[in-house]
Amino acid sequence: MHKHGLIKGSFIPPRNIRELRDLMRYKTKLVSVRSSEKNRIQNSLTVSNIMISNIVSDSFGKSASTIIKYAMEHPDEIDTDYTSFLHKSMLHKANEINMSMQGTISQEQASKMNVCFNHLSYVEICISQIDEAIFLIAKDFKSQIELFATIPSITTKSATAIISEIGVDM
User: Fold this and answer.
1) pLDDT score recorded for residue 74
2) In whole angstroms, what is the distance from residue 158 CA to residue 163 CA?
3) 139-158: burial string, b at 16+ Cβ within 10 Å, e else
C-alpha cells in the first residue's frame, strides 16, 4: 500500500518546529532538575529538624532562603532571632518562623545544601537561557500562539509547548 502511495508518510515537522520542540523538551528536563534540587534541600532541612516549610508558603522565597542560608553559615547560633530577615508581609509569622528554625544543621548537611543551592542557581540561569532561545524561535509563530492563548486556561507558555509538539498546520 505504501509503495502505491495509499499510506501517508509520518509527519516530519519543519526545522523551526523541531528546534522549538527540542528546546521545550530540554526546558522540561531542567525544570525537573530544579525540583529535584529543591527536594534535596528540603530533605536536608527535615533531617536537621528545621520546619520552616510548614510556616512559609515558599521555602525558596527571598526571606526563607536568606534565613536558611544564614542558619547554614552559623550553625552554632541556636537562639537566633530571624525577624530582621523577614519581608514586612511575613512579620506576623516571626514567632512561628523562629520556633521552626530551632533545629541544628550539621556540617555534612550544610555542605550538601551549599552544593544544592549552587546547582539550583546554575540551573535557574540555564532555564532563563533556554527561555530566551525559545522566545527567539517562537517569534515565528506569534500569531498562532496568540490564537491558542485565547482558549480558556491556555497560557502563552502552554500554547508554545502545544505548537512545538504538533506544529501549526493542523
Assistant:
1) 87
2) 9
3) eebeebbeebeeeeeeeeee
Looking at residue 11, its pLDDT comes to 75
Confidence of residue 125 (pLDDT cuts 50, 70, 90): very high
Beta carbons within 8 Å of 145's beta carbon, 6+ residues apart: 138, 156, 159, 160, 163
Distances in Å between the Cα of 149 and the Cα atoms of 44, 112, 125, 157 are: 40, 41, 27, 9
Distance from the Cα of residue 39 to its chain's centroid: 11
For 163, counting Cβ atoms within 10 Å of its Cβ (0-12 exposed, 13-18 middle, 19+ buried), the class is buried
Flag whether pLDDT at 71 surpasses 80: yes
Question: How many Cα atoms are found within 13 Å in the side-chain-facing hemisphere of 76?
Answer: 0
d(Cα 21, Cα 98) in Å, to the nearest integer?
46
User: One-letter amino acid identity for 47?
Assistant: V
Compute the distance between CA of residue 45 and CA of residue 26 in angstroms, rounded to an integer: 29
Asked if residues 113 and 46 have their Cβ atoms less than 8 Å apart, the reply is no
Grid cell for residue 128: 532563563
143 contacts 168 by C-beta, under 8 angstroms: no
Long-range contacts of 40-44 (CB under 8 A, 24+ apart): 40/112, 40/113, 40/116, 41/68, 41/113, 41/116, 41/117, 41/120, 44/105, 44/109, 44/112, 44/113, 44/116
